Amino acid sequence: MIIVIFSILLYAQQLYCYEANLMDTPLKCYGKTVACRYITDLSFAVITILCPLFCMILFGLLTILNVRYSQGRVQAFKLQNTNPSMNKPATTTNGNLEAKLKQKIDRSLLRMLLVQVLLFIIFTFPLSVQKFYSSFSEENNSGIETVINGFSYNLAVLIYFVSNGMPFYIYTLCGGTVFRKALYNFFIMTKRKLMR
């Protein structure tokens, strides 16, 4: 219920700002006045770009910190339950290997987070810029300018849609062997089902 109320409050301007079948606008359903266009474009930029970007960075960093913390707890538990008669050199070798593994996991998670944030900015920012440009540009454009604006808007929308499928490719390409193995096993299983 809270999410529904919050969503209604975020998009309340659309109830009184939008009008259907407008001419000389990027979309046929767009803001009635210039002020409404500025409000809707600003709310679009904040709600669909800045808020998800902030949440992505925040929760990504918290996930990395949680992984570090849980690895530390597992390491402490292992040290607590080890046999004191074990050889010291083997323990230090295992400790070095585990430290390198932790660093590798941390770097992999951080790389995935940075790639995801960077690609999210690249794929979502053009639509916001284009919407602001179309709101600020003069309304009496020539025919060619209108066509170019329409084309750039449609291209920005298509690029924006790519951001929705982006996590799959990031996890597959940057996520290490776990995601690639799962994808490979999925393709093998699909191939076997199709061959029956």
Structural overview:
The protein is mainly alpha-helical. The mean pLDDT is 79. The protein has a two-stranded antiparallel ribbon. The protein has six helices and two strands. It has helices spanning 2-10, 13-17, 34-80, 88-136, 143-174, 177-195, and strands at residues 18-19, 30-31.
Helix content: over 70%
Pattern of helices and strands: HHEEHHHH
The secondary structure category is mainly alpha
- Largest beta sheet: strand ordering: 1-2
Shape: elongated
What is the average of the pLDDT values? 79
Total count of domains: 1
- Rg (C-alpha, Å): 25 Å
Our count of helices gives 6
Report strand %. under 5%
DSSP summary, beta strand count: 2
Low-confidence stretches: none
Largest sheet properties: 2 strands, antiparallel
Quickly describe the structure.
This protein is mainly alpha-helical.
Q: Strands, helices and their partners?
A:
Elements: H1 2-10, H2 13-17, E1 18-19, E2 30-31, H3 34-80, H4 88-136, H5 143-174, H6 177-195
Antiparallel strand pairs: 1-2
Helix pairs in contact: 3-4, 4-5
Q: Characteristics of this structure?
A:
mainly alpha, 196 residues, two-stranded antiparallel sheet, 82% helix
